[in-house]
Amino acid sequence: MLTIDRQIQELRVEMASCALTRRERAQARAELDRLLARQARMNGAADALVSIKEAPPA
After folding, report:
1. Radius of gyration of the chain (CA)
2. CA–CA separation, 39 and 28 (whole Å)
3. What is the mean pLDDT of each run of 10 residues along the chain (58 residues)?
4. Which structural domain range is residue 31 located in?
5. CA 9, CA 46: separation in Å to the nearest integer?
6. Interatomic CA distance for residues 58 and 50, integer angstroms
7. What's the predicted TM-score (pTM) here?
8. Structural domain count, the chain
């Protein structure tokens, strides 16, 4: 199973270097957008956990 980072990288390479039809390019772009949103959610959740653990005691 590919990591999200790897999938994003491969989609970007495919979109930049392959001759895609409009439909294929739209599908690749939609998948890339979905993966980027997922990655952002995961990064936000990780940042929230770090900030909770680093919070000074009350």
Report:
1. 17
2. 16
3. 89 93 96 96 77 66
4. 4-54
5. 21
6. 17
7. 0.73
8. 1
